[in-house]
């Protein structure tokens, strides 16, 4: 197995292996919250925070608790508990210090717990047998890539408010078409670097 540089994994997670555009993970909040740039940026920062710290926690839990005890089969449950704990912490901090963002995100802030992109990063980390630094780079890069995707979508949606869109394509329909076109654009980066 080729040892991948963590910096390579970081940039690949942002561009060529973007959670939204390559794996279509985390689409629920991506489609629902991507209407305004400030709200999208706030959610993207929250997802990046949770991804970074849950990747670290889940790496340590998996390699230093589950593997030595032979309990690898519990990784799904342990990863979800870890994610839920960090989201709860984040929710309390955002509510106390950023109340406008807290109310703008509404139900989607606690729903970060079930954002499949976050669980996906932890599972990819295990499946690909990443080292600690590789896992950290993948977690941070995936968060930044997810943020890039949702903020770009919010910018496009704001421009579309002044456009004439056929009735059948309004709302999620046009969002999915734009997501597909953006995914095709990100395929252009695939010649640069790919991680598997």
Fold and architecture overview:
By secondary structure, the protein is an all-alpha fold. The protein has helices at residues 6-14, 27-33, 37-69, 75-97, 99-105, 116-127, 132-160, 172-187. It has one domain (6-189). The longest helix has 33 residues, at 37-69.
Give a short synopsis of this structure:
By secondary structure, this protein is mostly helical. The chain is built from 8 helices and no strands. Helix content is 69%, strand content 0%.
Q: How are the SSEs ordered, and which strands pair?
A:
Blueprint: H1 6-14, H2 27-33, H3 37-69, H4 75-97, H5 99-105, H6 116-127, H7 132-160, H8 172-187
Helix pairs in contact: 1-7, 3-4, 3-6, 3-7, 4-5, 4-6, 6-7, 7-8
- How helical, in percent, are the residues? 55-70%
- Number of structural domains: 1
Give the low-confidence spans.
none
- Measured between the Cα atoms of the first and last residue, the distance is 11 Å
Strand-pairing-aware structural class:
mainly alpha
Question: Beta fraction of the residues?
Answer: under 5%
Radius of gyration: 17 Å
Mean pLDDT: 88
Query: Biggest sheet, in brief?
Result: none
The number of helical segments is 8
Number of strands: 0
Helix/strand order, N-terminal first: HHHHHHHH
The best one-word shape is globular
Supply database-style keywords:
196 residues, mainly alpha, 8 helices, 0% strand
């Amino acid at each position: 197995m080729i040892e991948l540089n963590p910096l390579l994994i970081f940039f690949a997670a942002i561009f060529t292996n973007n959670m939204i555009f390559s794996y279509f993970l985390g689409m629920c909040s991506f489609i629902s919250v991507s209407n305004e740039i400030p709200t999208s940026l706030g959610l993207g920062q929250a997802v990046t925070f949770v991804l970074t710290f849950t990747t670290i926690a889940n790496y340590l839990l998996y390699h230093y608790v589950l593997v030595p005890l032979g309990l690898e089969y519990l990784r799904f449950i342990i990863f979800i508990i870890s994610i839920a704990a960090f989201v709860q912490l984040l929710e309390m901090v955002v509510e106390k210090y950023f109340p406008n963002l807290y109310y703008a995100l509404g139900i989607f802030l606690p729903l970060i717990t079930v954002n499949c992109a976050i669980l996906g990063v932890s599972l990819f980390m295990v499946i690909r047998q990443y080292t600690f630094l590789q896992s950290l780079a993948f977690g941070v890069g995936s968060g930044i890539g997810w943020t890039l995707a949702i903020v770009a979508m919010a910018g496009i949606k704001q421009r579309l408010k002044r456009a004439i869109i056929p009735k059948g394509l309004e709302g999620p329909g046009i969002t999915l078409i734009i997501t597909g076109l953006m995914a095709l654009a990100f395929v252009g980066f695939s010649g640069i670097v790919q991680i598997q």
